[in-house]
Amino acid sequence: MNEYRIKTEQLCISYDKTVVVENLNVQIPTGKITALVGANGSGKSTILRTIARLLSPQSGQVLLDGKSIQTQSVKEVSKKLAFLPQNPMAPEGLTVFDLVSFGRFPHKTGFKNITDEDREIITWAMKTTNTLELESRFVDELSGGQRQRVWIAMALAQQTEILFLDEPTTFLDMSHQLDVLELLKKLNQEQHRTIVMVVHDLNQATRYAHNIIAIRHGTPMCVGTPKDIMNKQMLKDIFGVDAEILKDPRDGILLCVPYRMPEKTD
């Protein structure tokens, strides 16, 4: 197995001629969960979307299996990498089964009907995400947690080994956040999927990710395991807060407790 199937080389990203990410060089460990963390507006989602080929860089490149992702066709990339955006929207009146079936499109030619093999994969994806009993329900009638599981089922139906998610727990309550994160952990542990996600809650990142990329103004300031990078200085540099670092007595996972904004000096 390639240790790093995804890499960036001197990646520069700009919006309206304003550079937001410059000379980005990161490697995504294969078969691990990587979390991108940082303050609002730090460039996390922009980086994620560019690596996933949804945005074109100004310069530099993203390498997927040793080839520039920009030179690979949409269908070729879609067979390797699935992307779940933040707060995705489904057309009104679409059933869960129909939405999950969209994940099979990269594997089809033209407008062929769903095959028995497709149906087996769709059913497997819904079983894996505990959404099979919802297959006849309309997506817009589901709760937030149910919808997020259904979207993940659609991504699984793509049968890719790499899954990108942009803040997958946004707008979910605490129990549904943990539900989604536990599902992603299960997919990584049992199916060895490489998962890359933007995470808003740093404590969730330290609990569920093997690798963390902490970003400030479009630049990775710290990269490594939670134990490697979790310290008071990182929290001050990346998030602008003073915080205590505590160790969960149950499993030793490092957690942060912010308590104030540091005083500004002239």
UniProtKB/TrEMBL annotation:
CDD domains xref list: ABC_Iron-Siderophores_B12_Hemin
Entry membrane topology: Peripheral membrane protein
GO molecular function: ATP binding; ATP hydrolysis activity
PROSITE patterns reported in the protein's UniProt record: ABC_TRANSPORTER_1, ABC_TRANSPORTER_2
Keyword Nucleus: no
Annotated keywords: ATP-binding, Cell membrane, Ion transport, Iron, Iron transport, Membrane, Nucleotide-binding, Transport
Compartments in which it is found: Cell membrane
Name of a matching Pfam family: ABC_tran
GO-annotated cellular components: plasma membrane
Primary residence: membrane
Domain ABC transporter, first and last residues per copy: 6-242
SMART domains: AAA (SM00382)
Domain of life according to the entry: Bacteria
Entry-linked InterPro entries: AAA+_ATPase, ABC_transporter-like_ATP-bd, ABC_transporter-like_CS, P-loop_NTPase, Siderophore_ABC-ATPase
Keyword check for ATP-binding: yes
GO annotation, biological process: iron ion transport
Full protein name: Iron complex transport system ATP-binding protein
Organism: Lacrimispora xylanisolvens
